[in-house]
Amino acid sequence: MHTLCDHAPGSNCQFPHVPYVPAAPGSCAVDPVIVVGAGPVGLSLSLALARLGVPTVVLDETTGQEETRPARTVVLRPDTAAFVARLGCAGTLESAGTHWTAWRTMRRRRLRERVAFAPRTPDGAAAPATASPVHLPQHALTRALRTALAHEKLAEVVTGSRLADLEQDEHGISAHTRGPNGTWWRGSYLIGCDGPRSTVRKLLDVRFPGRTAVERHAVAALRCELPWPGEALLHRSPPRQGGGPGSEVSARPLAGHVWRLDWLLPPGRELVTPDALVARIRDSLAGWTSESPAGPADETGTEGDGALPRGRGHGRLVPPYELLDTGVHTVHHRLARDWRQGRAFLAGDAAHLLGALGTQGLDEGLRDAENLAWKLGLAWHHGASDVLLDSYQAERRGAVAARLRAADQALPLLRDGRAVRWRTVLPGAARGRSTLLTDGHLGRGPLGAPPVYARTPLAPPDGQSGGLLVETPPGAPVTDVAVTASDGAVVRLRDRLGRGLLVVLVAPGTGVWDRRHWQSAGLMPQLADAVDALPMDAEVLVTEAYPGAAAHTVLLVRPDGHLVTALSGVRPAEMAACANAVRGGAHGPVTGSGRARRSGDAAASGGGEAGEEEASTVDPVGSSMLHSESD
């Protein structure tokens, strides 16, 4: 693996100078991709690149030993859980993770909402709209990613390596590290996944504006039995804890009868002492168990309207529990101004911080990794235009900015409804505050739904989009339907993501095809010829049905699972034009593809405009976005 510096970055270089000879245009790179940071985002990005045949070096400033912290957990949505599973961590998600069976929202003693998640089928699938997230300790996820990476021949983790300096030119980038393994490293690209205090971001002189201490939570992990096994709970104004309008506590199950409890702390710097935290634990447990003699394990509690009974009950006041871990979690909202500078990129907490109202920062970081991996894979193997590489910032920064904007608008409306006319400001507010408070937790609405890259620079050329032939709009994540692969195996669509373009033919009745001859049946020969002519690697899949699709609809799906377009029938010219757009039009126009995108067209196709809009999304709330109610 080419890891040591092969050009002279300066007088600090400790290795002989070897003149750098650039590769011919269009050929693959020779230097590895350097990933700075060995958290879940950096490790998953390195794994995804290795699966694409791209060598990586992970610079880890720690010793590589992950601290066990049961109270530090992660919630993975179905799309990010599928991404992690494809990287070789499916076993850990099953053994260390928990799929919630339902989500409860209560206010005082009354059940306000209960969302039941679809039961999982033998193949692990569930309806996308009701699929349960996966909840597991972060140390379990990180260890699983490290183990998977240790088996990759194209990946190397270098512990005890602290980044000190960066230098880049038109052919590559050099990184200087200090520590036991301090040296200069030469790479084709470098990605900073080194957290909120990112050294990469500082060396690139990228601003990181936003808001500090948006929310603070006291957190505890404990082993106990609660009346709602397998169900997560958000309890607003719990009666045993003062019942104030801003008080909240959540309980989310983990494996092994372990629960993570979060208490929203009031604004300010309240000191959370051990005694105060134990008092919170006892109050919460008593309120959920001892006040319900029969146990509110049914859907509506012990009263017909879903309320908790007002009596104290006949059980013990506080059930037995084992306290495993505690902490105080402070949520910040920040967004880096630039996510790409030349051959250097930012991802994860180095690029953004969020987490209020149930939004998940790691979820977004894993989406960063999945989005960037396939683009760097194309660039490393085949070369790429700036349109492709710039699309990472246009898509991912735009998505996170929208999430931050929604959270920053919702926070004052949901936490202090007296100050604003909230029903006229926040889209969807008429559904009720309880529902909006849970959107981020449940992965729905502007706070939680998977991103849609509607304004992507990689959109098909004008006139080649194919129209709206399916329920999934262009740029949105595709539905995870069952598909038949080229070897005749029936798998989930998400299982085939990450390698290249997916071309999915909707063909009702294919379940009865003879698997030995299915590739020669119907439209398959014509479709196979069209796919062979595409300007990027692609795989043909067949599904019996897709939401909203008629027979013979052809879907083009990006490696990260977002829909490119849906076409009526096999249309080779349109398919080639769309595939060329997906790869950024790196090698010019394809016949019949309309106008060719220039490398500087990202802003013209929405990237630059979105960037200007995004710059204001993390401004302090209380600005023109909010309309004060008159006295």
UniProtKB/TrEMBL annotation:
Keyword Iron-sulfur among record annotations: no
Instruction: Give an example GO molecular function.
Output: FAD binding
Keyword entries, A-Z? FAD, Flavoprotein, Monooxygenase, Oxidoreductase
Which cofactors are named for this entry? FAD
**A Pfam family the protein falls into:** FAD_binding_3
Q: Does the keyword Oxidoreductase apply?
A: yes
Q: Where is this region: Disordered?
A: 288-312, 584-631
InterPro entries reported for this sequence = FAD-bd, FAD/NAD-bd_sf, RIFMO-like
PANTHER family for the chain: BINDING MONOOXYGENASE, PUTATIVE (JCVI)-RELATED (PTHR43004:SF19), TRK SYSTEM POTASSIUM UPTAKE PROTEIN (PTHR43004)
Q: Which domain of life is it from?
A: Bacteria
Q: Under what name is this protein listed?
A: Monooxygenase
Its taxonomic placement starts with: Bacteria, Bacillati, Actinomycetota, Actinomycetes, Kitasatosporales
Query: Any idea where the FAD-binding domain is?
Result: 32-404
